[in-house]
Structure formats: structure tokens, C-alpha cells
């Protein structure tokens, strides 16, 4: 059984209370349940994490890379939050591990402040998804399954 890592960056632990007009009323626990159901549909194991710390996200990408090297990873769905627009280390880790990555955003970042329009992750991502709200997580896992041939 292959694994999908779903990684969430800073402030995503505040889902449900942080700017509900932008991010919706669903909580991170709701997102995890949605991801678990999507993974179960496709026969994937789920590793679901959130951290406000860049280094912790890097450690999880490195862990995903070890599974990738062993042929046990379907891919990574990454909502890096603000690190999307600031981190050089995250794309370096993605390139260094060779993981298949879908960059995900709950809101349409291109319809928001101009600083959100640039992503350091997009160049190393297999695909970029934004604006689908929380259901985008399930769509990203569905897309991962299509890429994996299932």
C-alpha cells in the first residue's frame, strides 16, 4: 500500500476560526477526515501533519523522500501556507527527494494580495491547485491516484 503525505504549514491549525470568509468553517480535523476518506477510496495510507515550523515540514518531506526511494509513496499534497511565498528550503527539499508533489491552497491565491501570487513551490510541483476550498484536498488525492495509475 502506497502512502500519501498531506502536509499543512503555518496557521492551518486555525482553520474554522481564521478568516472563515476566506478559508471556510471546516477545521483541520475535518480536513484530515476528508483526506482519510479520499485515501481509503484509492487504497492509500495517509500521513497527515500540520506544523507552524518550516524545519518540521522539511523533516516530513525528507521522510516522504525515503518512502519514495523505497517505492512506497504515492506523493505529497502540500499546503505550505505563507511558506509558499517565502521558503527556498521547501522547494530544495522537494527537488532533493524527488517526491511527486501537488501544491495546494484552499483559497484562490491569485485573487488575493499580490504577495500571494508568487510561489517558490510551483516550479517543483507536479500540479498546483487553488480555490476549491477544503474539498480541494480530496481532489488533490484523487489526482494523485490518477497519476499513480489507479
Automatic annotation (TrEMBL):
<dbReference type="Pfam" id="PF01220">
    <property type="entry name" value="DHquinase_II"/>
</dbReference>
<protein>
    <recommendedName>
        <fullName>3-dehydroquinate dehydratase</fullName>
        <ecNumber>4.2.1.10</ecNumber>
    </recommendedName>
</protein>
<dbReference type="InterPro" id="IPR036441">
    <property type="entry name" value="DHquinase_II_sf"/>
</dbReference>
<feature type="active site" description="Proton acceptor">
    <location>
        <position position="23"/>
    </location>
</feature>
<dbReference type="GO" id="GO:0003855">
    <property type="term" value="F:3-dehydroquinate dehydratase activity"/>
</dbReference>
<dbReference type="GO" id="GO:0009073">
    <property type="term" value="P:aromatic amino acid family biosynthetic process"/>
</dbReference>
<feature type="binding site">
    <location>
        <position position="92"/>
    </location>
    <ligand>
        <name>substrate</name>
    </ligand>
</feature>
<feature type="binding site">
    <location>
        <position position="116"/>
    </location>
    <ligand>
        <name>substrate</name>
    </ligand>
</feature>
<comment type="pathway">
    <text>Metabolic intermediate biosynthesis; chorismate biosynthesis; chorismate from D-erythrose 4-phosphate and phosphoenolpyruvate: step 3/7.</text>
</comment>
<keyword id="KW-0456">Lyase</keyword>
<dbReference type="InterPro" id="IPR001874">
    <property type="entry name" value="DHquinase_II"/>
</dbReference>
<feature type="active site" description="Proton donor">
    <location>
        <position position="105"/>
    </location>
</feature>
<feature type="binding site">
    <location>
        <begin position="106"/>
        <end position="107"/>
    </location>
    <ligand>
        <name>substrate</name>
    </ligand>
</feature>
<dbReference type="InterPro" id="IPR018509">
    <property type="entry name" value="DHquinase_II_CS"/>
</dbReference>
<feature type="binding site">
    <location>
        <position position="85"/>
    </location>
    <ligand>
        <name>substrate</name>
    </ligand>
</feature>
<dbReference type="GO" id="GO:0009423">
    <property type="term" value="P:chorismate biosynthetic process"/>
</dbReference>
<keyword id="KW-0057">Aromatic amino acid biosynthesis</keyword>
<dbReference type="GO" id="GO:0008652">
    <property type="term" value="P:amino acid biosynthetic process"/>
</dbReference>
<comment type="similarity">
    <text>Belongs to the type-II 3-dehydroquinase family.</text>
</comment>
<comment type="subunit">
    <text>Homododecamer.</text>
</comment>
<comment type="function">
    <text>Catalyzes a trans-dehydration via an enolate intermediate.</text>
</comment>
<feature type="site" description="Transition state stabilizer">
    <location>
        <position position="18"/>
    </location>
</feature>
<keyword id="KW-0028">Amino-acid biosynthesis</keyword>
<feature type="binding site">
    <location>
        <position position="79"/>
    </location>
    <ligand>
        <name>substrate</name>
    </ligand>
</feature>
<dbReference type="GO" id="GO:0019631">
    <property type="term" value="P:quinate catabolic process"/>
</dbReference>
Amino acid at each position: 500500500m502506497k502512502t500519501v503525505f498531506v502536509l499543512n504549514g503555518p496557521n492551518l491549525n486555525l482553520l474554522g476560526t481564521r478568516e472563515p470568509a476566506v478559508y471556510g468553517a471546516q477545521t483541520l480535523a475535518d480536513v484530515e477526515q476528508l483526506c482519510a476518506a479520499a485515501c481509503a477510496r484509492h487504497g492509500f495510507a495517509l500521513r497527515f501533519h500540520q506544523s507552524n515550523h518550516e524545519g518540521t515540514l522539511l523533516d516530513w518531506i525528507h521522510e516522504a523522500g525515503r518512502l519514495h526511494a523505497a517505492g512506497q509513496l504515492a506523493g505529497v499534497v502540500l499546503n505550505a501556507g505563507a511558506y509558499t511565498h517565502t521558503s527556498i528550503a521547501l522547494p530544495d527539499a522537494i527537488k532533493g527527494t524527488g517526491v511527486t508533489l501537488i501544491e495546494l491552497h484552499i483559497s484562490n491565491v491569485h485573487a488575493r494580495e499580490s504577495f500571494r501570487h508568487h510561489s517558490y513551490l510551483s516550479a517543483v510541483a507536479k500540479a498546483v491547485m487553488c480555490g476549491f476550498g477544503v474539498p480541494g484536498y480530496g481532489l488533490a488525492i484523487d489526482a494523485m491516484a490518477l497519476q499513480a495509475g489507479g
